[in-house]
Amino acid sequence: MTNMLTYVTEYQNMTFAQLPFNELDGVILAQLAYVDYNILQQQPQRQFSQIDSVTLLEKSVAQTWNPAANYALLLALRQSRRYQQLRWSNWVQHTNVAVEEQFSAVTLTFAPHRYYIAFRGTTATLMDWKEDFNMTFLDTIPSQRTAQRYYDKAAREFPGRYYLGGHSKGGNLASYVVAHSRGALQDAIVSAYSADGPGLKTPLSPQIKQKIHKFIPEASIIGLLLEPGLDYQVVKSNATGIKQHDPYTWQIQDRKFELVATPSHLSQFTQHSVAGWLDNLDDATKQEFLDSLYALFAATKYQRIDDFTTSWRSTLKLLAPELLNTKHETRQQWRHVTGQLLNSVLHEAKNVLDENRPHLRK
């Protein structure tokens, strides 16, 4: 399998002067937003090449979506001449329950006066998923505003050339910062990399488009959410379904991602169905529906998504009384919203059938 780890190993002796920063570097560094720097900071060094404890490296990625691959990445970076200057600073991580925000970012220096700000994507916490869903009815979510402030402060304190990026929600945050930066702060941004991150709901200007490099896998669902245009490239993946959301499954060729023409039919079908569903609901209805659903799951006292899947029998027992105690108006709203989703799915299915009928007749 040829993926990002292969790239780090094969080109470990080529400096950025010999092989300029590219899309693979952009997505690789985005993965470093998931590292728990609170663990790595047990050592005084802030440079990956100087970390001598493999135990700390392993612990720092233990809670990520793909611990084995992230651990292998850290080991490869540690031995790479290309990334020998790579160091981290200004790591922040905070959760604000009141405004439903979960944010984390880190600044990575990979060459003199060359910085990469990695915004963390969606984690396995219920709060993080709720903030993602809030994008459907809010013009701006709290993490987007925090990401803008984080970049503004970094660019003013450390002048230089900036690259931004992130996976999933992190890609959305990076795109948001590019789209909303002005003047010298805009000029300092070289490019941004969104690895299967949701869109910004509105079309972007040509100036902004040329700076944002968005990649989605063939079976993308998350990366096509709130995406109004076709400003993305589709990457071949060796996984199936939602597992393609993991960039380590993305294939590379000739120091670039291996591309395919379009997302899969199922991915496009899902995108159009969800887009139609959201268009049929006003923002107040979206908010009420998501708030009530979040409150229902929060009442179980579970805080992580994997708690719901690994303890599904216990989850059902906890949810049953909460469902019974839900107000009649709330249950009616759920029926309305889910009914609209079903209508959107059926409408999209009819459109697909109508498009294929001429081919079926042949």
Report on the structure:
With 362 residues, the protein is of the alpha/beta class. It has 2 domains: 4-263, Rossmann fold, CATH 3.40.50; 281-361, no CATH class. It is 47% helix and 15% strand. It has helices spanning 4-10, 23-31, 37-40, 54-60, 67-78, 126-134, 142-157, 169-180, 183-187, 206-209, 265-279, 283-298, 305-310, 312-325, 328-361, and strands spanning 87-96, 101-111, 114-119, 161-167, 189-195, 212-217, 233-235, 252-253, 256-257, 259-260. Helix 6 packs antiparallel against helix 12 (283-298), helix 7 packs across helix 8 (169-180) and helix 11 (265-279) crosses helix 15 (328-361).
Question: What's the arrangement of secondary structure elements?
Answer:
Elements: H1 4-10, H2 23-31, H3 37-40, H4 54-60, H5 67-78, E1 87-96, E2 101-111, E3 114-119, H6 126-134, H7 142-157, E4 161-167, H8 169-180, H9 183-187, E5 189-195, H10 206-209, E6 212-217, E7 233-235, E8 252-253, E9 256-257, E10 259-260, H11 265-279, H12 283-298, H13 305-310, H14 312-325, H15 328-361
Parallel strand pairs: 3-4, 4-5, 5-6, 6-7
Antiparallel strand pairs: 1-2, 2-3, 7-10, 8-9
